[in-house]
């Protein structure tokens, strides 16, 4: 059963995930409030489908409270690698309880129990608090995005190398953000997802070697997998102005992925979107210009 004229708050609305979720929600008869830091981002989101904008810092209690008031549901998407994300999630949970929000959907991460990876463990803390709070919730645990290839596509085409900063044989069930956004929207507009935790992983366990082979076949020219060194990764991140703390946490994440990859299962995702999950070959074929 599709719910009626609900007001849904999307935090982190100007990020890649938030934008995808808002675009998907506009297919339904719901109202969307977007919480953003910058006024210009708010204008863009209005043009792409948001009905209401609240401008402010997520860590400003007054702005956060203003955003949550009068909402029916909240989908909380924390900015990536934030060292205070557990504290923020706890604050949002408390405000949802205070204002009788029907449901809080927490956008977490695949396998939050990975204690060696800080942003995973912080999300586990947020999940635990939410589960124990008494607030109605749905927890979503997405895997690594196929969209990470947007950052390296030009290099792939120009050099014939698929380079990420971990072992070329580590396996990942990477997932298409479009599938994730569709799953999020369905969870928000359908009944029956209360007090559930859903793993949302892609349908194939792929290494860099596997991905390079698929890209080779799509391009019709050879692409080879090669591990990018940690030193090179850090150098590029610093050149791009990435904060030191985020670099350190990404390096810790990459070190874990180097040893273990990040495997998951697509059954729940496919059940939520009511179709097969997007495969990597389809994603590459449909989303990239092969002649950069």
Fill in the keyword field for this structure.
two-stranded parallel sheet, Rossmann fold, about 290 residues, 7-stranded parallel beta sheet, alpha/beta
In short:
Helix content is 45%, strand content 14%.
Q: What's the total number of strands?
A: 9
Distance between the termini: 45 Å
Low-confidence region ranges: none
> CATH superfamily of the domain at 7-144 and 175-201 and 264-278, called what?
NAD(P)-binding Rossmann-like Domain
Series of secondary-structure elements, N-terminal to C-terminal: EHEHEHEHEHEHEHEHEHHHH
Q: Radius of gyration in whole Å, from Cα?
A: 19 Å
User: Number of helical runs?
Assistant: 12
Mean pLDDT: 94
Structural class: alpha/beta
Please state how the strands of the largest beta sheet are arranged side by side: 3-2-1-4-5-6-8
Label the overall shape. globular
Question: Which range does the strand content fall in?
Answer: 5-15%
- Characterize the largest beta sheet: strand count, sense, and whether it forms a barrel: 7 strands, parallel
CATH classification class of the domain at 7-144 and 175-201 and 264-278: Alpha Beta
The portion of residues assigned to helices is: 40-55%
Give the second-level CATH assignment, the architecture of the domain at 7-144 and 175-201 and 264-278: 3-Layer(aba) Sandwich
CATH fold-type name of the domain at 7-144 and 175-201 and 264-278: Rossmann fold
Describe the structure in your own words:
This protein is an alpha/beta fold and about 290 residues long. Helices cover about 45% and strands about 15% of the residues. It has a 7-stranded parallel beta sheet, with helices on both faces. It has a two-stranded parallel sheet with strand order 7-9. The protein is globular, with a radius of gyration of 19 Å. The model has no long low-confidence stretch (mean pLDDT about 95).
């Amino acid at each position: 059963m599709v719910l009626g004229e609900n007001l849904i708050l999307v935090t982190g609305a100007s990020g890649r995930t938030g934008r995808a979720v808002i675009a998907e929600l506009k297919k339904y008869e719901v109202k969307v409030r977007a919480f953003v830091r910058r006024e210009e981002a708010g204008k863009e989101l209005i043009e792409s489908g948001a009905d209401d904008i609240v401008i402010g810092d997520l860590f400003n209690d007054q702005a956060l409270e203003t955003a949550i008031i009068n909402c029916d549901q909240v989908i909380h998407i924390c900015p990536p690698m934030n060292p205070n994300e557990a504290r923020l999630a706890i604050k949002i949970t408390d405000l949802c309880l205070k204002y009788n929000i029907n449901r809080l959907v927490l956008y977490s991460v695949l396998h939050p129990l990975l204690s060696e990876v800080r942003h995973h463990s912080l999300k586990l803390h947020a999940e635990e608090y939410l589960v124990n709070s008494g607030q109605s919730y749905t927890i979503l645990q997405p895997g690594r995005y196929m969209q990470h290839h947007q950052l390296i596509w030009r290099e792939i085409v120009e050099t014939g190398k698929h380079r990420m900063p971990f072992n070329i044989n580590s396996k990942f069930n990477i997932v298409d953000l479009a599938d994730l956004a569709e799953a999020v929207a369905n969870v928000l507009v359908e009944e029956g997802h209360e007090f559930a935790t859903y793993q949302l992983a892609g349908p194939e366990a792929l290494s860099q070697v596997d991905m390079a082979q698929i890209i080779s076949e799509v391009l019709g020219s050879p692409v080879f997998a090669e591990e990018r060194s940690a030193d090179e990764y850090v150098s590029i991140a610093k050149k791009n102005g990435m904060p030191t703390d985020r670099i350190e946490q990404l390096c810790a994440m990459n070190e874990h992925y180097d040893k273990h990859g990040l495997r998951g299962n697509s059954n729940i995702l496919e059940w939520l979107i009511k179709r097969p999950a997007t495969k990597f070959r389809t994603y590459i074929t449909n989303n990239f210009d092969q002649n950069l």
